[in-house]
Amino acid sequence: MVKRVFLLFCLIVGYPFMLLQSQNLVIDSTTFDSGEQLFYSPGTITSPDTCARPVTVMGDAHIEYKAAQYVHLGSGFRTDFSCGGGTFHAYTGSQPPVCPTAIITGEHVFCGSSVLSAASSVNDSGTITSYQWQFNGKKIHDANAMTYSASESGDYTVLVSNSYNCTAISAVFTVLCYPASIPIITGPASVCVGSAGNVYSTQAGMTNYYWSVSAGGMVTGGGLAMNNSITITWVAAGAQTVSVNYTDLYGCMAASPAIFIVQVNPCYSVSGTVKYYKQAGSSIPLDNIELWLMDGETPLASATTTSGTGYYSFDPVKNGAYTITVHNNNKPVGGINATDAAQINWWGAFPSAIEQVRFLAGDVRYDYWMQATDAYMVQYHFVYGTPFTRTIETGTPWTYWKSVGKNIYSNFNPYNGPSEWPMDMPLEVADGPVSYDIFGLVTGDFNTSFIPGNGKVSSEKVQLISGDARQVSANTETELPIRIEHASKVGAVSLVMNFPPELVDVDEVTMAAVDEQPQWTVIGNELRIGWNSRNPVNISAGDIVLNLRLTTTAAFTQGSVIRFTLAPDPLNELADNFCNPIPDAILRMDGINASTVGFDNQPHAGELKLEIHPNPFTEFTNISYMLPLDGEVTLTIHNFLGQELKTLVSEPQPKGDYRLMMDGKKLLPGIYQLTLKLRNNSEELLRTVKLIRTR
């Protein structure tokens, strides 16, 4: 047999193979029996001429190159090799295997999500070894199973590979995915047993609503297929449920209904009264007061007090810690005068047990300390209308506290400063009904004498009777004293007087033998005077309580009469040395008739004069005064809180005229009081004028 050798140069992974004379084919040091067939894929070979020719060995032994991607090995074994740049895979059997097919099955239109499946077919015992799902042409991370749960609208494909490393990709599978329905229920999550009218709602505009309520609830409204709400009365305690499902606008339903858990609690009543506190006698019921029961910052319920008793009642509430606030009180306020200031001043120095609401009413500066500065603010409020800090900060002129609160014994007991004071009225509900009475006071009414709707107690009013008529001409300075009819110890004065301002100007209001001069102001035809002191003054019957320095105007002509009267105001009051109102105190004051002879028939004996020029001033001013008697002289400057700032003169001086220049640069711009006092063995004289420094 002639040996024929065909030399075939073919590159298999960069190495040549040769067909020998023997019955075997040696490829890359691997021997294959003759008669085995070699197939290749032309599309993967860089140089087709290298391996594309059929070769015959020993007659019928041959190697054929077919348009496939596999090398037929018969009974031999080889995994893969390359020829001319093409990659081949080995197989055994009579025919080469085919690549798999891939088909996606599933729903094209669905709600929420749907499972897509990859169906594939293989032969020659090949198996699918991997899957890779794709969405809109991009690989889906970790989507490597036969199935995939699609939840977005778009185009899906799947790439499969078999055990021969052959791959196939499916046709595009387009889906339309509607968003899944997600019912949401809103309504009260914590209620009381027996509470009615509890409304639970879900999204509107859907169809086929299906509501379900646990056994502890009774449906009293809604809850039908066309209703997006349901009304329930809860009749049993414990955790109860409300559930709902529906069909949405796309015809979709949620996979499971929404479930709303409601805690139904045993609950108890909270009731009581609201009254205006009286330190003596019966407190006065306050009607039409709106209260709120608060859980933190959230109002839970409201109640309004009834007329006659001041009674209120909240709907039952569950166990827990709450607070009560007064939300609305439109009642008029008043009753604040110098007597309140005197009692605050006294309590600050000599504290005693008082109700908590009374302390809060006296703490007008809202710093949880009650002292002389609160008293000054109360007196300023009476005279000048100055608002209280507490009223500004709280937004109400009222003060409240529970009637069974702690007694307050001093600024340090039981609370020491604002950090220890409770800011709200606390309420604790613990397995039973709660009775909770509340006291109210107008802020500043420390002596509790105000009567809502009426003013102060009528028996405490003061009277002013007319005295003699004095003759004074126009444009003349004169003095008009206010005398007391009965001997009294006076610790506070509150007067609201009317007079004809077109006929007379009020220049000064003074008191003799006191540490601090009264505050006063004129508004239109009204003169308001306020004074209080921890050191009351003893005034004998017929003696002067106050002295008014006046100047008649040019309009005070023949036939004119000047007479001061008490305004019809219950705040007119004198208080005694214990800061209690003096019942039915009687004051007397002369009138003034116009005189054409140009003289003032008031006595001039013992007159003390004090003048300032210029006034107002910027830096320096001249002070002149006249002493009618020898005596001990003091000339002092006070601020309007009564605090002494500077002493200009303090020495014995003989009677006569005096003049001095005062350097006022160290005084801040404002209004001050310049007070001249003259004392000797027989009497004490006093004169006070306003001192005004401008910038």
Rg estimate, integer Å: 53 Å
Bulk shape: elongated
Distance from N terminus to C terminus (CA atoms, Å) equals 139 Å
What count of helical segments does DSSP give? 5
Largest sheet: 6 strands, mixed
Share of residues in strands: over 45%
- Mean of pLDDT: 83
Number of strands: 54
Low-confidence stretches: 1-95, 597-605
Helix content: under 10%
* Helix and strand composition category: mainly beta
Task: Describe the fold and architecture.
It is a single chain. The chain has 695 residues and is mainly β. 6% of the residues lie in helices and 46% in strands. It has five helices and 54 strands. Strands 10, 12, 13, 15, 16 and 17 form a six-stranded mixed sheet that branches. Strand 15 and strand 16 form a beta hairpin. Helix 2 (338-349) packs antiparallel against helix 4. The radius of gyration is 53 Å and the shape is elongated. The model is unreliable at 1-95 and 597-605 (pLDDT under 50).
What is this entry, summarized?
The protein is mainly β. Helix content is about 5%, strand content about 45%. It has five helices and 54 strands.
